[in-house]
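Problem: given the chain below (255 residues), write out its structure.
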Amino acid sequence: MSRVIHQLLNFLLVRSRLAWMPIPVQRGFLAGSWWSIYPWTSYWRGTHEPAVQEVLIGLGNIRGWTCWDLGAHYGFYSVGLARRVGPDGEVAAFEPNPLSCRRLAYHRRLNRLSCLKIFAMAASDHSGQMELYTYGELTSTTTHLAYEGETRVEACAPLAVLAVRLDDLVAAGALRPPDLVKVDVEGHGHRALAGMSEVLRRQRPHVLIALHSQPEESGVLEILGPLGYAPTLIGSPPSPSGSWIGREIFFRRPT
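Solution.
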């Protein structure tokens, strides 16, 4: 199949009702839940980020926990966590991309997860309006807030979104303090952690984070290191340069 035909079929499928057809998940972190059949079939096939799934499954019984999912996308981890924390727990999913947020809400309805709260906004170190760089592809997994030094040009196709400091939401009573924070926000993770510095200091939750840039990597370590967190690289060893960019890191709650 030519690349053009494949792109055309993908374009049509993503925008059709067929893409929303429910399918049961047979294995992995989402086993026993319902998912939409297309796109990203690795989610319902159970093959998405297996090393990360293993870490979360390895947490054991987390009933009653509060979990934050920053950069929730379609809700793979949000749904899996919500099923595990149960009705006495709470999962807060943050997703500024409106198309991703719509699919996330659909997966919440499919699985009847009243403990899953959705926030159509980004987590950052300040509250207010920001721009999501989409490059014209809202269906992509890599829409993002601007990287340090990234030039704003027309091709960025920026979309205005809301951002919030999570410390502010906790102070206002809109969020429970977390036991686990999962972060995958395309280079903005250190900013998100800076916006929850008080929660990190008081609560010391587990932190699972995907790193996408050098400023994000160094910023995360600068925030979590003084709090007693030690990083554990998930999956295969680091690159020869020692960089963890493009990898997931687990920071277990300090004892």
